[in-house]
Design brief:
Blueprint (H helix, E strand, L loop, with lengths): L2 E5 L5 H12 L3 E6 L3 H13 L4 E5 L5 H14 L2 E7 L15 H26 L8 E6 L3 H4 L6 H21 L4 E8 L6 H4 L5 H5 L11 H12 L10 E4 L4
Parallel strand pairs: 1-2, 1-4, 2-3, 4-5, 5-6, 6-7
Helix pairs in contact: 1-2, 1-9, 3-4, 4-6
Length: about 250
Protein backbone atom coordinates (compact mmCIF):
# COMPACT_ATOMS: atom_id res chain seq x y z
CA UNK A 1 0.00 0.00 0.00
CA UNK A 2 3.02 2.30 -0.13
CA UNK A 3 4.56 4.45 2.55
CA UNK A 4 2.49 6.15 5.23
CA UNK A 5 3.09 9.27 7.29
CA UNK A 6 1.29 10.15 10.50
CA UNK A 7 1.10 13.85 11.31
CA UNK A 8 -0.35 14.86 14.66
CA UNK A 9 -2.31 18.09 14.86
CA UNK A 10 -2.67 18.18 11.08
CA UNK A 11 -6.00 19.93 10.68
CA UNK A 12 -4.49 23.43 10.68
CA UNK A 13 -1.30 25.48 10.53
CA UNK A 14 2.04 23.72 10.18
CA UNK A 15 0.46 20.28 10.41
CA UNK A 16 -1.97 20.95 7.56
CA UNK A 17 0.77 22.39 5.36
CA UNK A 18 2.93 19.33 6.10
CA UNK A 19 0.08 16.97 5.25
CA UNK A 20 -0.48 18.60 1.87
CA UNK A 21 3.23 18.60 1.00
CA UNK A 22 3.72 15.02 2.19
CA UNK A 23 0.88 13.87 -0.04
CA UNK A 24 2.45 15.69 -2.98
CA UNK A 25 5.69 13.80 -2.23
CA UNK A 26 3.92 10.43 -2.44
CA UNK A 27 3.03 9.64 1.15
CA UNK A 28 -0.31 8.20 2.24
CA UNK A 29 -1.24 10.65 4.99
CA UNK A 30 -2.89 10.22 8.36
CA UNK A 31 -4.32 13.62 9.27
CA UNK A 32 -4.68 13.55 13.05
CA UNK A 33 -7.01 16.00 14.76
CA UNK A 34 -8.47 16.40 18.23
CA UNK A 35 -11.65 18.44 17.78
CA UNK A 36 -12.10 20.04 14.36
CA UNK A 37 -13.28 17.18 12.17
CA UNK A 38 -14.51 19.53 9.44
CA UNK A 39 -11.04 21.06 9.05
CA UNK A 40 -9.36 17.64 8.99
CA UNK A 41 -11.86 16.31 6.47
CA UNK A 42 -11.15 19.36 4.32
CA UNK A 43 -7.42 18.57 4.29
CA UNK A 44 -8.17 14.96 3.37
CA UNK A 45 -10.56 16.00 0.61
CA UNK A 46 -7.96 18.29 -0.91
CA UNK A 47 -5.37 15.52 -0.90
CA UNK A 48 -7.75 12.99 -2.45
CA UNK A 49 -8.89 15.46 -5.11
CA UNK A 50 -5.24 15.96 -6.07
CA UNK A 51 -4.84 12.20 -6.52
CA UNK A 52 -3.35 11.32 -3.12
CA UNK A 53 -4.39 9.05 -0.27
CA UNK A 54 -5.32 10.28 3.19
CA UNK A 55 -7.50 9.57 6.19
CA UNK A 56 -8.57 11.77 9.09
CA UNK A 57 -8.21 10.21 12.54
CA UNK A 58 -9.48 11.79 15.73
CA UNK A 59 -7.15 11.28 18.69
CA UNK A 60 -6.10 13.28 21.72
CA UNK A 61 -2.36 12.64 21.92
CA UNK A 62 -2.38 13.24 25.67
CA UNK A 63 -4.28 9.92 25.97
CA UNK A 64 -2.43 6.67 25.42
CA UNK A 65 -5.56 4.77 24.37
CA UNK A 66 -6.25 7.32 21.62
CA UNK A 67 -2.67 7.02 20.36
CA UNK A 68 -2.83 3.22 20.21
CA UNK A 69 -6.10 3.32 18.29
CA UNK A 70 -4.72 5.89 15.87
CA UNK A 71 -1.64 3.84 15.03
CA UNK A 72 -3.82 0.75 14.59
CA UNK A 73 -5.88 2.60 11.98
CA UNK A 74 -2.74 3.62 10.12
CA UNK A 75 -1.61 0.00 10.10
CA UNK A 76 -4.97 -1.20 8.78
CA UNK A 77 -5.78 1.54 6.28
CA UNK A 78 -2.54 3.08 5.06
CA UNK A 79 0.10 0.37 5.34
CA UNK A 80 3.75 0.59 6.38
CA UNK A 81 4.53 3.58 8.55
CA UNK A 82 7.55 5.37 7.11
CA UNK A 83 7.36 8.70 8.91
CA UNK A 84 5.98 10.39 12.01
CA UNK A 85 5.68 14.13 12.53
CA UNK A 86 5.03 15.06 16.15
CA UNK A 87 3.42 18.40 15.42
CA UNK A 88 0.66 18.76 18.01
CA UNK A 89 1.38 21.48 20.55
CA UNK A 90 -0.76 23.51 22.92
CA UNK A 91 -0.16 26.66 24.92
CA UNK A 92 -2.37 28.86 27.07
CA UNK A 93 -2.98 32.53 27.73
CA UNK A 94 0.16 34.60 28.12
CA UNK A 95 1.21 34.53 31.74
CA UNK A 96 4.10 35.02 34.12
CA UNK A 97 5.27 31.87 35.87
CA UNK A 98 3.85 32.84 39.26
CA UNK A 99 0.35 32.71 37.80
CA UNK A 100 0.68 29.28 36.16
CA UNK A 101 -1.55 26.60 37.70
CA UNK A 102 -0.82 22.92 38.16
CA UNK A 103 -3.75 22.09 35.88
CA UNK A 104 -2.26 24.21 33.10
CA UNK A 105 1.11 22.50 33.50
CA UNK A 106 -0.50 19.07 33.44
CA UNK A 107 -2.34 19.86 30.19
CA UNK A 108 0.64 21.36 28.40
CA UNK A 109 3.12 18.68 29.42
CA UNK A 110 0.70 15.85 28.68
CA UNK A 111 0.15 17.08 25.12
CA UNK A 112 3.57 18.54 24.30
CA UNK A 113 5.80 15.97 26.00
CA UNK A 114 3.97 12.77 26.92
CA UNK A 115 2.13 12.65 23.59
CA UNK A 116 5.24 12.85 21.40
CA UNK A 117 7.03 10.29 23.57
CA UNK A 118 4.19 7.80 23.19
CA UNK A 119 3.78 8.46 19.47
CA UNK A 120 7.52 8.01 18.96
CA UNK A 121 7.37 4.76 20.94
CA UNK A 122 4.69 3.37 18.63
CA UNK A 123 6.55 4.58 15.53
CA UNK A 124 9.80 2.93 16.64
CA UNK A 125 7.99 -0.37 17.19
CA UNK A 126 6.89 -0.26 13.57
CA UNK A 127 9.95 1.24 11.86
CA UNK A 128 12.93 -0.26 13.69
CA UNK A 129 15.01 -2.92 11.95
CA UNK A 130 15.26 -4.45 15.41
CA UNK A 131 11.53 -5.08 15.33
CA UNK A 132 11.39 -6.27 11.72
CA UNK A 133 10.63 -2.84 10.26
CA UNK A 134 12.15 -1.14 7.25
CA UNK A 135 13.40 2.05 8.89
CA UNK A 136 11.89 5.49 8.73
CA UNK A 137 12.00 9.04 10.01
CA UNK A 138 10.63 11.03 12.91
CA UNK A 139 10.47 14.82 12.98
CA UNK A 140 9.47 16.63 16.14
CA UNK A 141 8.10 20.16 15.85
CA UNK A 142 9.73 22.25 18.56
CA UNK A 143 9.75 26.04 18.84
CA UNK A 144 12.24 28.86 19.10
CA UNK A 145 10.69 29.28 22.54
CA UNK A 146 12.85 26.35 23.67
CA UNK A 147 15.91 28.49 23.03
CA UNK A 148 14.48 31.91 23.95
CA UNK A 149 12.47 30.91 27.03
CA UNK A 150 9.36 33.05 26.31
CA UNK A 151 9.62 35.11 29.52
CA UNK A 152 6.40 36.73 30.63
CA UNK A 153 4.40 34.75 28.09
CA UNK A 154 4.85 30.98 27.87
CA UNK A 155 7.71 29.70 30.04
CA UNK A 156 5.80 26.45 30.51
CA UNK A 157 5.31 25.98 26.76
CA UNK A 158 8.99 26.81 26.17
CA UNK A 159 10.03 24.21 28.75
CA UNK A 160 7.86 21.56 27.10
CA UNK A 161 9.57 22.21 23.78
CA UNK A 162 12.96 22.02 25.48
CA UNK A 163 12.01 18.55 26.68
CA UNK A 164 11.00 17.61 23.15
CA UNK A 165 14.40 18.69 21.84
CA UNK A 166 16.21 16.61 24.46
CA UNK A 167 14.09 13.62 23.49
CA UNK A 168 14.99 14.23 19.85
CA UNK A 169 18.72 14.04 20.57
CA UNK A 170 18.49 11.02 22.86
CA UNK A 171 16.15 8.99 20.68
CA UNK A 172 18.19 9.76 17.57
CA UNK A 173 21.23 8.15 19.19
CA UNK A 174 19.16 5.26 20.54
CA UNK A 175 17.76 4.15 17.18
CA UNK A 176 20.45 5.33 14.76
CA UNK A 177 21.59 1.75 14.07
CA UNK A 178 18.02 0.61 13.57
CA UNK A 179 17.28 2.54 10.39
CA UNK A 180 15.43 5.43 12.02
CA UNK A 181 16.48 9.06 11.81
CA UNK A 182 15.08 11.46 14.42
CA UNK A 183 15.27 15.22 13.96
CA UNK A 184 13.39 18.35 14.93
CA UNK A 185 12.45 21.65 13.40
CA UNK A 186 12.42 24.77 15.54
CA UNK A 187 9.95 27.25 14.02
CA UNK A 188 10.10 30.89 14.98
CA UNK A 189 7.27 33.39 14.58
CA UNK A 190 4.92 31.63 12.17
CA UNK A 191 1.46 32.76 11.12
CA UNK A 192 -0.71 30.10 12.78
CA UNK A 193 -3.76 30.00 15.05
CA UNK A 194 -1.74 29.12 18.15
CA UNK A 195 -1.19 32.81 18.85
CA UNK A 196 -4.94 33.35 19.21
CA UNK A 197 -4.97 30.59 21.84
CA UNK A 198 -2.40 32.62 23.74
CA UNK A 199 -4.68 35.63 23.64
CA UNK A 200 -2.83 37.64 20.98
CA UNK A 201 -3.85 36.75 17.41
CA UNK A 202 -1.61 39.49 15.99
CA UNK A 203 1.51 38.48 17.92
CA UNK A 204 3.61 37.68 14.83
CA UNK A 205 3.09 41.15 13.41
CA UNK A 206 3.96 42.70 16.79
CA UNK A 207 7.29 40.89 17.12
CA UNK A 208 8.41 40.48 13.50
CA UNK A 209 10.70 43.51 13.78
CA UNK A 210 12.85 41.35 16.10
CA UNK A 211 13.45 38.88 13.28
CA UNK A 212 16.48 39.63 11.07
CA UNK A 213 14.40 38.91 7.97
CA UNK A 214 11.77 41.38 9.29
CA UNK A 215 8.81 39.11 8.62
CA UNK A 216 6.88 36.22 10.07
CA UNK A 217 7.14 32.79 8.54
CA UNK A 218 4.50 30.77 6.72
CA UNK A 219 3.47 27.21 7.66
CA UNK A 220 4.56 26.02 4.21
CA UNK A 221 8.12 27.11 4.96
CA UNK A 222 8.21 24.90 8.03
CA UNK A 223 6.59 22.04 6.13
CA UNK A 224 9.34 22.20 3.51
CA UNK A 225 11.97 21.82 6.23
CA UNK A 226 10.12 18.85 7.73
CA UNK A 227 9.85 17.05 4.41
CA UNK A 228 13.53 17.71 3.70
CA UNK A 229 14.48 16.09 7.00
CA UNK A 230 12.39 13.05 6.05
CA UNK A 231 13.83 12.85 2.53
CA UNK A 232 16.81 10.87 1.19
CA UNK A 233 18.59 14.21 0.79
CA UNK A 234 18.95 14.24 4.61
CA UNK A 235 20.10 10.61 4.80
CA UNK A 236 23.10 11.43 7.04
CA UNK A 237 21.19 13.85 9.28
CA UNK A 238 19.94 12.68 12.66
CA UNK A 239 19.76 14.22 16.12
CA UNK A 240 19.62 17.66 14.49
CA UNK A 241 17.40 20.61 15.42
CA UNK A 242 16.84 22.81 12.39
CA UNK A 243 15.98 26.46 13.03
CA UNK A 244 13.24 27.87 10.80
CA UNK A 245 13.25 31.26 12.44
CA UNK A 246 14.17 33.89 9.86
CA UNK A 247 17.56 34.24 11.53
CA UNK A 248 16.41 34.92 15.08
Amino acid sequence: MGKAILITGASRGIGAATARLAAARGYAVCVNFRENRAAADGIVAGIVTAGGRAIAVQADVSREADILAMFARVDAELGRLAALVNNTGVNDLQSRLESITAARLDRILATNVKGPFLCAREAVKRMSLRHGGEGGGIVNVSSAAARLGSPGEYVDYAASKGALETMTIGLAKEVAEEGIRVNAVRPGHIYTDIHATGGEPGRVDRVKALVPMKRGGQPEEVAAAILWLLSPEASYVTGTILDVTGGR
